[in-house]
């Protein structure tokens, strides 16, 4: 009985591992693989592994600039098969980008065929396109066969590849780079080759030079698509710290032809901006009315250059539209600089000086190893030539020695023993052809010996000290800059222009109306056509039953509005922040624009600048007046500030701008007016209660204040009557007196407003029910103080006049045509029809 064999039971060995430690270790390994082997370039040659491998594969195949083009698929296959086993798509995308003149400042690949466009079009398939190295790329590969750099086994150890290219220039600065790794990213802009070479030359000559010194010859990035860099702060920051932010604008010119509509011609766009998408976005913004004033848009780009034409509507200010394009489209883009590269096998963020220093250190190593290689080769060749010359001088003895030898090995030993030659020399002698015995051939050998002696002396001189090596680097980089450099394409401005919202808005006069319930809106002045005195006007606002229009005035879009409340507080508001509404809409509640505290706006003053020698004169219902310098209101606060202190049962009525030399007229509801000089009112600070301006009769209230200027005082009453009166009719009285009668009134026909006017002015009158009439001041007759006036606007029984605005002649001439027969209504449907479908 045979026994069964004993089988040992194999117990698997289990090694306990902390999952957190394993995940951390594995992820770090993966991250470093991505950082070092894929996404971040080497600081020495400015290339990522895929770029380096592609160029090396093409160079190894002899696919150089002096040869015929070869299929791109051949270069991709060679790269993937030997060096980069990550898929053909990534390799071809890399090759395509290196051939695009709008992606690389100086392309590394010379492409033939469709290699894509600035519109984002993809390149043709690799089987259709052809490529070869550019002459500039060959400068990165030069001397690669002279053991100037280290080689490492490829992925399957079947061959070797260079760890870095020799690179005669800091390609990282010339062509820039971008890449996203794990936890870090790089984004370096391209620069002008001539300027980079000059910066390297300056560093060699003066190693202690500063970044500011380098910026004298290398002021900043130079993008292949041109453009305009606004401001140098980001450049200085990037050159010092490695981080910076650039604002890059496209180049656009305003072409204003008198016989045609104005145009904006875009000839350059920011780096890495897709032109087709930019044009599409402009068209979309025009349709959505986020950009106004554009009538047509065309892309007229061709092989001669980029040209995008933006046709503008008649009457539009081109600079405003251009600012809108800068603000809302990629015509102005931000380029964030991160100078991250691999240095000493580690990712580092470096400034300009450090990048140049790292390159010079690498280049010095390359030049030293090249010179050592050339020196050894020259010495070896000289050694052979000296042996040949010995043999030629004693040729008969050499031939006899060789004949007496039984074999070549014996001949070799005999030559070494007899003539004192070395083994390499004897091998060369034995291989020498008989034709070398000719006198001419002997002369060539002697000439080559002398030439090699000179070369060896020069190489030994270069290797004798570091200064000579750096001088050699300087000569080479100056030569490269002269042969391949070109003029700067990107312009740099010293100051950075920050576009505020104000820069995007045309500074034009508009009409602003406010209701008793504090609804506010703005309208273009051309909304209301001219009518004769006594007409009914047109509907200016649709109001609620309990609401009515309280005031209207004219202001410019860029003005500040100082909004004064009945409680004596003041708030700031920009005119362009008031929403533009249609003629019949009620507008927007002002509480949505200002942080009011249970108070109503009673006076609004448009103002552009705040000066210490200009004043605001306040008038209250009870006849008090206060004079405060303008600069007291120059620092806005969202919650408002106190303007004046009001007495009990008093409220603010009117505010006027003065220069300290004016006379004023206070007008009451019952038709009294008092003229006095503002110098009788002392200047005080904010929160003052002021002094008595006019003494009031029982039941009377101050209605308005008017600065004495221009020709006449225009007075309007509730029932739509008005008149002009000579200012000389109002003789000056002392401040605090009752004044004189201005106009004949009745209990139901009190004074609404008074304004100083000239004969060539126009006025806009609005009623509580929203009717508006615009007319010439010259249509209103000049009457005495005791007259009732003439009818200005015909009102319904339950309507009354609430507001009066004066349109001065300079505003009229700059804003609209007086002879317009029809009102221009802001109708969204009409506007959409006038816009071309882009």
Strand order of the largest sheet: 14-9-8-17
**Derived structural class:** alpha+beta
The radius of gyration over CA amounts to 44 Å
Shape: elongated
How many structural domains in the coordinates? 4
Strand content: 15-25%
Question: Given this structure, which CATH class of the largest domain is correct?
Answer: Mainly Beta
Count the helices. How many? 19
Give me the CATH superfamily of the largest domain. DNA gyrase/topoisomerase IV, subunit A, C-terminal
Notable traits:
Gyrase A, domain 2, 19 helices, alpha+beta, Topoisomerase, domain 3, 838 residues, 4-stranded mixed β-sheet, 4-stranded antiparallel β-sheet, disordered C terminus, Topoisomerase II, domain 5, 24% strand
Summarize the entry for a quick read.
The chain is α+β, with helices and mostly antiparallel strands.
Give a description of the structure.
It is found in: Cytoplasm. Its EC number is 5.6.2.2. The chain has 838 residues and is an alpha+beta fold. The protein is elongated, with a radius of gyration of 44 Å. The chain starts with 18 loop residues before the first helix and ends with a helix.
